[in-house]
Design goal:
about 350 residues, alpha+beta, five-stranded antiparallel β-sheet, four-stranded antiparallel β-sheet, 11 helices, about 35% helix, about 25% strand
């Protein structure tokens, strides 16, 4: 729209000073001729703007001219720039609006605060994606979920649970959307009870005409807090005591730290550190085998038996491909293994 374009030109000039007509045209995705027509329209409306052609020309405002400021301080503007995580805005279809909003924020700042706000976007980066994502980068389509959330309407979902062969159908009452570590969730009530739905597991969604039926007085933040606590504080059925080699302790805690029920303590041997972990079931302790001989379960006996059973199953599956042990336990792959490479 022309009015929005005129405002964008005004804010860019107020923020940047002199800007070439070519740069304005590129930012606004219009022709240079359209930019000059817009400049004439601003001038006719009483805005002190003029253009200079030539190599060092451009479009600028009369020095000292400013639109009304919003009262934002430098710290408030920096906070907004830090919160500008592109991934979240892109998933919501608001990445274009983000750039426009930040230009308006920058234009509203007093001149002394602008350099600090600009440096924020250059010195602080918010990356919501998790480490070591595998597979193609698929962007969740949040369009229909957003429509139901903002229209305060009920939502029909075709939702696939983890490990399920096909989707199940639910009619839910949404509170809102939450981005957690790069994953979008729908917080909603199902039959009056709070539920959490991963957006990327919704194969279909339809906004209904019925108004939403949320529990009275419950906000999105309160519903999310309760669900998050429920996930993070799963009941512990088995307490496992184990020891970890010191050189692997940091990585072990990074991966399994959420399951620790007591801080690490020195073991009887200097190379080991003892830990206590809580699992929902003894079978879940099989995850410790990923660290091989760098982790040893001390107790309870049923956890040791579970790991021994899992290791035996792996040996049965892969044992025929294992190299034969050498005289001192070293693996020997064949008749020439361990021989010098000379002559090859």
């Amino acid at each position: 729209m022309k009015a929005d374009r005129l405002l964008s030109i005004l804010l860019l000039l107020q923020t940047r000073g002199r800007v070439t007509a070519g740069e304005l045209a590129q930012r606004l995705e219009v022709s240079v001729r359209t930019v000059y027509r817009d400049v004439e329209a601003l001038s006719a409306a009483g805005v002190p703007v003029w253009s200079e052609r030539g190599r060092h020309g451009g479009v600028s405002l009369l020095p000292g001219y400013r639109t009304d400021v919003t009262g934002l301080t430098g710290d408030e503007a920096r906070a907004l720039f830090v919160l500008a995580a592109e991934g979240a805005h892109r998933a919501l279809g608001l990445d274009g609006a983000l750039g426009s909003a930040l230009r308006k924020v920058m234009a509203a700042l007093p001149a002394p605060h602008r350099p600090a706000a600009e440096r924020t976007s250059e010195r602080v980066l918010v990356d919501p994606a998790r480490w070591m994502r595998t597979g193609p980068d698929t962007t969740t389509d949040l369009g229909e979920l957003q429509r139901a959330v903002f229209a305060d309407r009920r939502l029909r979902l075709a939702y696939r649970h983890s490990g399920a062969a096909g989707p199940a159908e639910y009619t839910v009452d949404p509170y809102g959307l939450v981005s957690k570590a790069g994953v979008w969730y729908l917080v909603a009530d199902l039959a009056g009870a709070p539920r959490l739905f991963r957006a990327d597991r919704a194969s279909a969604a339809e906004t209904l005409e019925e108004p939403v039926r949320r529990r009275p007085g419950v906000t999105l933040g309160e519903a999310w807090a309760g669900l998050r606590e429920r996930v993070e504080r799963l009941p512990v059925e088995v307490t496992v005591r184990l020891r970890v080699r010191r050189e692997r302790l940091d990585m072990f805690v990074r991966i399994h730290g959420a399951l620790l029920v007591a801080p690490p303590s020195p073991g009887p041997a200097e190379e080991w550190t003892e830990l206590v972990m809580g699992f929902r079931a003894v079978q879940a302790a099989r995850a410790l085998l990923a660290f091989g001989a760098d982790v040893e379960v001390i107790s309870p006996p049923e956890a040791r038996r579970e790991l021994a059973l899992a290791a035996a199953e792996a040996v049965r599956l892969y044992g025929r491909d294992a190299p034969a042990p050498g005289p001192e336990g070293a693996a020997v792959d064949g008749p020439d293994a361990g021989q010098p490479d000379a002559g090859r």
